[in-house]
Amino acid sequence: MNRQETLKSLASLLESFIERVVHLKEERLSVSEGIRRLDDIADKASQGLDMTDQAGDWFAEHNRWLTDSSLSPPDVSRINRILQQFKTNLRLAGEASLSEDKIHREIDRWSKTGEKLDRKLILRRGPEARAVAGEEQEDTIARFEHCLERLTAIFKDTCGGKKHILSVADDLLKAARLQSNKDALILSAFVIYYLKQNGYKVEPYVKKLREAEAVIGEGISGGQ
Amino acid sequence: MANRGERAYLAALMALKQKDYRAAQEHFERAAPFYGDDKEFNLCFETTRLLNAVRTELAGPASTDKIDIEEVFSDG
After folding, report:
1. In this complex, do B44 and A18 lie within 8 Å of one another by their Cβ atoms?
2. Which of A96, A116, A126, B45 could form a disulfide with B28 if both were Cys (CB 3.0 to 4.6 A apart)?
3. What is the DSSP string of B12-74?
4. What was the ipTM of the complex prediction?
């Protein structure tokens, strides 16, 4: 490959990278551009220009933002701030035209809906799943798959020399309680549920399971 | 009001979308003082700058690194 070809190849690689970056930012770009336009409208209104029609167009164009998930809470606060500023520049009752009245109502509607969006519930993963600094986080499916692999290995170890699955369940419960072994606890619960589904009386095992669960629970809360 | 840096960054991204890399670089340059250590901003800015440099290089004289000029005297 000569120098010219190398440069062409590099240019094409960089263009493709930029294209992908822009594609990833497409939605953010559209939101930022929309907010910037609203900002311009409010700015011109503050200079005394009549921007009622432009504001009406803006509301019509961005109405879907109130129902889809395009806006983040900071976007909502920002739009509300701009709208409140814009509202102060609209002429007040008495002199207000029909279209100005409509804009007033739209601003109120956006403010109310915006408050609801702002209070959106955000679910966070529990302490167990929090990433340790510097470590890459596995997804939940991969984590569960690894857990199953560990459980299979524990099951094979525990089965050695036993003649009945109830003896395996008993040993697993002991390991869970005495060694605070969470994998043994999960596996014993699995075995107990299997036994229950196959008509065994499992109440004594369920009792032991709860005891082991409490021991492990204390260990976790004591360690925090 | 959106600050000048934010507006310039947005304009740069819009220019990138339209594949106007020169304009994008100018907008990035205006936004740069506002974005200091922002990794994402700097990555976009530097990639655009590199792309423009490569394109300038490609647009220059053909593939030779240097041009040798030789004088030839037909009668020795």
Report:
1. yes
2. B45
3. HHHHHHTT-HHHHHHHHHHHHHHHTT-HHHHHHHHHHHHHHHHHHHHHSS-S-S--------T
4. 0.78
